[in-house]
Amino acid sequence: MPTEILIRNADTILTMDDARRELNGADILLRDGAIAALGAGLTTPGEVIDATGCLVTPGLVNTHHHLYQTLTRAVPGGQDALLFGWLQTLYPIWARFGPEEMRVSVLIGLAELALSGCSLSSDHLYLFPNGARLDDTIDAAAQIGLRFHATRGAMSIGQSDGGLPPDSLVEAEAAILDDCIRLIDRYHDPRPGAMLRIGIAPCSPFSVSRELMRDAAILARDKGVMLHTHLAENDEDIAYSLEKFGCRPGQYAEDLGWTGDDVWHAHCVKLDGSEIDLFARSGTGVAHCPCSNCRLGSGIAPVRAMRDAGVKVGLGVDGSASNDAGNIVAEARQAMLLQRVRNGADAMSAREALFIATRGGAQVLGRDDCGQLTAGMRADLAIWDMRGIEAAGTWDRAALLLAGPMQVRDLLVDGRAVVRDGRVVTFDLDHAIRRQNQLAAALAGG
After folding, report:
1. In terms of Cα–Cα distance, which of 182, 164, 168, 287 is closest to 225?
2. For 207-248, how does the pLDDT look when each residue is reduced to its tens digit (9 = 90+)?
3. Residues 311, 279: contact at Cβ < 8 Å?
4. Where are the alpha helices (DSSP H) in 224-309?
5. Which of 33, 50, 251, 258 satisfies CB 3.0 to 4.6 Å to 247 for a cystine?
6. CA torsion 100→101→106→111, rounded to 10°?
7. Phi and psi at residue 27, in whole multiples of 5°?
8. Cβ of 188: how many Cβ atoms within 10 Å?
């Protein structure tokens, strides 16, 4: 017998389909983890979820995160620093992490995302101290039940060779590539509906060699996986590229094979017009991280210009040491507001920002099976209760980012409940929070 769930009588369904349909007083029928039908008066012998008074959207997509950083929020000494100084403050702390720190921080980070309506998240893990492995984060993500794109990051140039990270956090490049192969062969699922995919993600142009960047691109194409890194994050980043490589970051990326529809770059705050055109022509994606960019004083990314040029743009909350939150719907609101600050009140609508947070993010991550509510798509959806104080008096419930809750009532991923009535239901979150705070206190105590 097929497993069915009926989302019944939603006030508004924001589909994010090609026609941008908005359905009022409608139902969604889910069958075996996919969307079977949308319309009025649908029936099922299975479970019924009453969505009266609610807005239903696709599950939101987070295209850039460092989940391990949920253990280092609001660290003194890093609260008011620019990017490079912030990193130099935190690297020694992160060097004391181990497998449990990685696992628990992912439980907390993904739970926080789930409560904000996120059904699919990437993660960029680029340091592996004291026996930690990407496997630790993959296990935690499976426990929560979010769709997960784990990227195998790396740093290979330490301070003794002119890099930023301490030598204790860098790895030999041959070992990095070998572990990428191991992880892809063991975990990567290229099939439609996949819950887990692996990407290759050297940390940044200032923490790995040109050779590793090039070799990573060759390996990713051989294995059919995506590539991810940081690029053009702030003025220091641009100055480093000009000094060390004799070119801007966009040219550096293109020269080493880091453009294309299988590549997405985080931040891109300082892309110029020619780089935006390059990304548009090549299909290269961007993970826009507005809150982190504000927190570190990096600037406002030219998202309006990117979107107008045809660049794929998604949202990322970035690490919780530089945000310091992991709320993807709040990130979408911040993205909308910053484009208005930069370009005027009509620069970005609430609907466009929510598109970027859903279908836009799915496009960046190469997912054509989620990010919209249409028949045949995976059953990843967020149900927002619009009867509370946040939306009281609103005339337009689809304008969630202007007036509405920042936390979901229900979140379903592949048709399975992850959040019900505002609570994570897949694991013991209270226990994880207690353990997280114990681990953070131990790190703070040195």
Report:
1. 182
2. 999 999 999 999 999 999 999 999 999 998 899 899 999 999
3. yes
4. 235-245, 249-255, 273-282, 290-295, 303-309
5. 251
6. 90
7. -120, 160
8. 18
Residue 301 has pLDDT above 70, yes or no: yes
The second-level CATH assignment, the architecture, of 60-364 is: Alpha-Beta Barrel (3.20)
pLDDT, one tens digit per residue, over 287-296 is: 999 999 999 9
CB distance 203 to 155 below 8 Å: yes
How far apart are the C-alpha atoms of 21 and 10, rounded to whole Å? 14
Q: Give the CA-trace dihedral at 139, 140, 141, 143, to 10 degrees.
A: 90
Looking at the predicted structure, is the pLDDT value of residue 1 above 80?
A: no
Q: How far apart are CA 395 and CA 35, in angstroms?
A: 28
- pTM (two decimals): 0.97
Q: DSSP assignment of 68-112, as one string?
A: GGGGSTT-TTTTT--HHHHHHHHHHHHTT--HHHHHHHHHHHHHH
- Give the C-alpha separation, 413 to 147, whole Å: 7
What is the chain's Cα-based Rg? 21
Contact 251, 204 (CB under 8 A): no
Average pLDDT for the chain: 96
In the block, which residue shows the tokens 């990227």? 151
For residue 406, give every residue at least 6 positions away whose Cβ sits within 8 Å of its Cβ, in sequence order, or none.
116, 327, 329, 330, 390
The tens digit of pLDDT for each residue in 356-398 reads 999 999 999 999 999 999 999 999 999 999 999 999 999 999 9
- The pLDDT of residue 205 is 84
Per-domain residue ranges of the chain? 4-58+372-424, 60-364
- Measured CA to CA, the distance from residue 429 to residue 74 in angstroms comes to 21
Using alpha carbons, select from 301, 304, 104, 308 the residue that is nearest to residue 316: 301
Residue 208: closest CA among 88, 126, 265: 126
- Cβ–Cβ under 8 Å, residues 195 and 167: no
**Per-residue pLDDT tens over the stretch 41-71:** 999 999 999 999 999 999 999 999 999 999 9
Find out whether 242 and 288 touch, Cβ atoms under 8 Å. Answer: no
Mean pLDDT for the stretch of residues 335-352: 98
Q: Does domain 4-58+372-424 have CATH number 2.60.40.1080?
A: no
**Which pair of tokens denotes residue 349?**
């609508």
